[in-house]
UniProtKB/TrEMBL annotation:
<comment type="subunit">
    <text>The basal body constitutes a major portion of the flagellar organelle and consists of four rings (L,P,S, and M) mounted on a central rod. The rod consists of about 26 subunits of FlgG in the distal portion, and FlgB, FlgC and FlgF are thought to build up the proximal portion of the rod with about 6 subunits each.</text>
</comment>
<dbReference type="GO" id="GO:0071978">
    <property type="term" value="P:bacterial-type flagellum-dependent swarming motility"/>
</dbReference>
<dbReference type="InterPro" id="IPR006299">
    <property type="entry name" value="FlgC"/>
</dbReference>
<feature type="domain" description="Flagellar basal-body/hook protein C-terminal">
    <location>
        <begin position="94"/>
        <end position="137"/>
    </location>
</feature>
<keyword id="KW-0282">Flagellum</keyword>
<dbReference type="InterPro" id="IPR010930">
    <property type="entry name" value="Flg_bb/hook_C_dom"/>
</dbReference>
<dbReference type="InterPro" id="IPR001444">
    <property type="entry name" value="Flag_bb_rod_N"/>
</dbReference>
<keyword id="KW-0966">Cell projection</keyword>
<keyword id="KW-0969">Cilium</keyword>
<dbReference type="GO" id="GO:0030694">
    <property type="term" value="C:bacterial-type flagellum basal body, rod"/>
</dbReference>
<keyword id="KW-0975">Bacterial flagellum</keyword>
<comment type="similarity">
    <text>Belongs to the flagella basal body rod proteins family.</text>
</comment>
<protein>
    <recommendedName>
        <fullName>Flagellar basal-body rod protein FlgC</fullName>
    </recommendedName>
</protein>
<dbReference type="Pfam" id="PF06429">
    <property type="entry name" value="Flg_bbr_C"/>
</dbReference>
<feature type="domain" description="Flagellar basal body rod protein N-terminal">
    <location>
        <begin position="13"/>
        <end position="39"/>
    </location>
</feature>
<dbReference type="Pfam" id="PF00460">
    <property type="entry name" value="Flg_bb_rod"/>
</dbReference>
Length: 141
């Protein structure tokens, strides 16, 4: 029984690391979406640059298992969108305004992927809890 309970706790801890990583991913995605239409603070400057989260795998010695964590958040090096708008205060000398390299469709796709992964980890925790409860119910009788 001791090994079974520690396996249950390990499963829940590993799933929890997935929840934390996906929550961090959602934070980065929300930052990208919030800044999708922002411009530079000064004329001709660079606007917000899209951020891309990375994940790392690390050995958790207390669990003796590999867990996932949000790694570095790196800037997307793709080019900015440029739009001709000489009346915009952020326009350069030629009248062009740089907009962030954020594509809302890509962000929505990433958000759905993060959401599904988050839900999968939640389901693991729920299933583990049900298994523990069923085991306890069997032991009571």
């Amino acid at each position: 029984m001791a090994n079974d309970s520690s396996d249950f706790l390990r499963s829940m801890s590993i799933a929890t690391s997935g929840l934390r990583a996906q929550a961090g991913r959602m934070r980065v995605i929300s930052e990208n979406v919030a800044n999708a239409d922002s411009t530079a603070a000064k004329a001709g400057g660079d606007p917000y640059r899209r951020k891309v989260p990375t994940f790392t795998s690390a050995l958790d010695r207390t669990l003796d298992a590999k867990v996932v964590a949000l790694g570095r958040v790196v800037p997307d090096q793709s080019s900015f969108r440029v739009k001709y708008d000489p009346s915009n205060p952020a326009a350069d000398a030629t009248g062009n305004v740089k907009y962030p390299n954020v594509n809302p469709l890509i962000e929505m796709t990433d958000m759905r992927d993060a959401q599904r992964s988050y839900e999968a980890n939640l389901n693991i925790i729920g299933a583990t809890r049900r298994m523990i409860q069923r085991t306890l119910d069997i032991l009571k009788t």
